[in-house]
């Protein structure tokens, strides 16, 4: 698979200096990456060609992860791109799952990814000391690897509500545990995105940017193609003082590069109108 987009080289050091770097996600090429129609190398090239600041790679869409990990890290660095890592793993899981969580953290560290996205999973009961201690050990391990776990509000249950995310961040208080705010998932639970941003505030290290149609069962769509109050949501994120990775998370729908370009144009036009 090759990109049909015009080549645009990001300004030098843009990815390093921007407080709101924009990354494309493996979700845009989910089926193509899984099938081998698109390689990880092509995915990295597409990010560079579209002018994005980086990529979000995912274990589940990377069939040759072990064989390609070191070279992917080299190519990302050579292209001057940023990288984050995401998996479907849940922080609150069985003892047997801890090995996978550690491996995911190690993968992020090898990539040079400052954050790894996990979902919460079912929150342990308040008196389940073993469950909380197990999660604490994972968070502590991430800290030793200079990696931050970005806990994401899940689209379904368990682990999708603000209370669940906030409760985990509070009980497992650590600089190595923060949150990736998914602007499309809080509405699935009847919760206001802006209110979630205000509540989580300086604990947000990344945000999955997407839009949603009026039909709740439809998958996420590129920015500006749905009905979410994007202006209000993004303005709330922009007001945060820390760096926040803006990561496009919507499916390719037959034209992944087009969806990326439309979303980049949406953000660029919004920035232009604000000046």
Automatic annotation (TrEMBL):
Pfam family, one: AP_endonuc_2
Keyword Isomerase: yes
Keyword Iron listed: no
UniProt entry keywords in alphabetical sequence: Isomerase
Gene3D superfamilies membership: Divalent-metal-dependent TIM barrel enzymes (3.20.20.150)
InterPro entries linked: IolE/XylAMocC-like, Xyl_isomerase-like_sf, Xyl_isomerase-like_TIM-brl
Region (Disordered): 1-21
Domain of life from the UniProt record: Bacteria
GO molecular function per UniProt: isomerase activity
Domain Xylose isomerase-like TIM barrel: 44-269
Record protein name field: Sugar phosphate isomerase/epimerase
Species for this entry: Caldilineaceae bacterium SB0664_bin_27
């Amino acid at each position: 698979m090759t990109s049909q987009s015009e080549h645009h080289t990001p300004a030098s050091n843009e990815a390093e200096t921007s407080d709101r770097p924009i990354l494309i996600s493996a979700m845009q090429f989910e089926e193509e990456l899984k099938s081998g129609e698109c390689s990880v190398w092509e995915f990295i090239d597409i990010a560079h060609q579209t002018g994005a600041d980086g990529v979000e790679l995912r274990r589940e869409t990377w069939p040759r992860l072990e064989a390609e990990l070191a070279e992917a890290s080299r190519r990302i660095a050579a292209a001057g791109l940023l990288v984050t890592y995401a998996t479907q793993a849940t922080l609150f899981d069985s003892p047997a799952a801890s090995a996978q969580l550690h491996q995911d953290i190690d993968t992020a560290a090898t990539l040079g990814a400052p954050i790894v996205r996990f979902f919460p999973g079912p929150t342990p009961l308040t008196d389940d000391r073993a469950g909380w201690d197990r999660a604490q050990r994972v968070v502590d391990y991430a800290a030793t690897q200079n990696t931050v776990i970005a806990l994401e509000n899940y689209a379904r249950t368990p682990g999708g509500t603000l209370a669940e995310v906030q409760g985990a961040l509070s009980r497992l208080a650590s600089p190595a545990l923060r949150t990736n705010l998914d602007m499309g998932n809080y509405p699935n639970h009847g919760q206001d995105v802006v209110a979630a941003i205000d509540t989580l505030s300086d604990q947000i290290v990344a945000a999955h940017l997407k839009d949603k149609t009026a039909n709740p069962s439809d998958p996420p769509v590129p920015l500006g193609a749905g009905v979410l109050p994007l202006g209000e949501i993004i303005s709330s994120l922009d007001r945060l003082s820390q760096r926040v990775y803006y990561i496009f998370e919507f499916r390719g729908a037959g034209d992944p590069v087009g969806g990326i370009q439309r979303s980049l144009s949406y953000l660029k036009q919004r920035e232009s109108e604000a000046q």
